[in-house]
Amino acid sequence: QVQLVESGGGLVPAGGPLRLSCPASGRTSSRDAMGWFPQAPGKKREFVGGSATTDGRTYFADSVKGRFTIYRDNAKNTVYLQMNNLKREDTAVYFCAAKVPPYFMAGAATDAWYDYWGQGTQVTVSS
Fold first, then answer.
1. What angle do CA 52, 57, 60 make, to 5 degrees?
2. Which residue of 27, 49, 115, 127 has the fewest C-beta atoms within 10 A of its own C-beta?
């Protein structure tokens, strides 16, 4: 089992930054793939970014490229989502998710691919 607990959400004005944290505990490993999925009211969770150790790269949806970055602190078993230039449409509950190895990257942008989920943290962007 892997436990994930997101934090760092809050109210932020449009154009501002926010950093979300997702520390992992339990049977976690630096080899786990991690993803971030916001869910806006009345909508499905959608992939915005992920990090995999198979190739050391991060991946982002087109809607957030250039604004969001992901980085990992393996010593703390924590993955971060740095969000800059936030827009009102970024308002959502943000979930982090983990996929334990072994895995192939196909499907990493779909929520069904992941094994574990956090409880989410609310991000609200005001105009």
1. 90
2. 127
CA dihedral 98, 12, 66, 95 (to 10 degrees): 10
Phi, psi of 102 (to 5 degrees): -85, 155
Helix (H, G, I), strand (E, B) or coil at 89: helix
- How far apart CA 86 and CA 68 sit, in angstroms, is 9
- Pick the closest to residue 90 from 32, 31, 48 (CA basis): 48
Query: Could you tell me the two tokens for 121?
Result: 């943290």
Whether the Cβ atoms of residue 36 and residue 89 lie closer than 8 Å to each other: no
